[in-house]
């Protein structure tokens, strides 16, 4: 799953998991070093509790996306949904950085694509 996210340009999506204590400590370390955000162990469950683990996952997902977006009107017309989603995030989180791009897209006299 991690490799597929990387291949699809979605490396910002973090992976969390756990359950049952079947992953050895050495394997946990290897997976974390590889890029898995966190694999919870039974000890984590005992010390953190379910709410603590949920809080950690939510905290890890709470970051702005859309920085350094590179999208053109052609990407929108080709319905590249991944790039369109990044543009929407950039407009929400980094409006100053994408202002010129949004203005140029707004000036496009072609038929406006409908998203959704």
Task: Label this structure with key terms.
single chain, 116 residues, mainly alpha, Rossmann fold, 2 domains, two-stranded parallel ribbon, elongated, cobalamin binding, metal ion binding, Cobalamin-bd_sf
Instruction: Kindly report how far apart the N and C termini lie.
Output: 26 Å
Largest sheet: 2 strands, parallel
Class derived from helix and strand content: mainly alpha
Helix proportion of residues, in percent?
55-70%
GO molecular function: cobalamin binding; metal ion binding
Report on the structure:
With 116 residues, this protein is mainly alpha-helical. The chain folds into two domains: 2-61, 3-Layer(aba) Sandwich (Rossmann fold); 65-116, no CATH class. Helices cover 57% and strands 5% of the residues. Strands 1-2 form a two-stranded parallel sheet. β1, α2 (25-34) and β2 (38-40) form a beta-alpha-beta unit. α5 packs across α6. The longest helix has 20 residues, at 42-61. The radius of gyration is 19 Å and the shape is elongated. The mean pLDDT is 88.
Topology:
Elements: H1 2-7, E1 16-18, H2 25-34, E2 38-40, H3 42-61, H4 73-77, H5 81-93, H6 95-106
Parallel strand pairs: 1-2
Helix pairs in contact: 5-6
TL;DR?
It contains six helices and two strands, in the order H-E-H-E-H-H-H-H. It has helices at residues 2-7, 25-34, 42-61, 73-77, 81-93, 95-106; strands spanning 16-18, 38-40.
């Amino acid at each position: 799953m991690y490799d597929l996210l990387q291949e699809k340009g979605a490396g910002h999506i973090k992976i969390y998991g756990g359950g049952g204590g079947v992953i050895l400590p050495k394997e946990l370390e290897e997976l974390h070093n590889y890029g898995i955000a966190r694999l919870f162990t039974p000890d984590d469950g005992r010390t953190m509790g379910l709410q603590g683990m949920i809080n950690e996952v939510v905290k890890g997902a709470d970051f702005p996306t859309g920085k350094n977006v590179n999208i053109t009107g052609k990407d929108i017309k080709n319905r590249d949904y991944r790039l369109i989603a990044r543009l929407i995030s950039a407009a929400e989180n980094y409006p100053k950085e994408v202002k010129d791009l949004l203005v140029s897209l707004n000036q496009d006299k072609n038929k406006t694509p409908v998203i959704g």
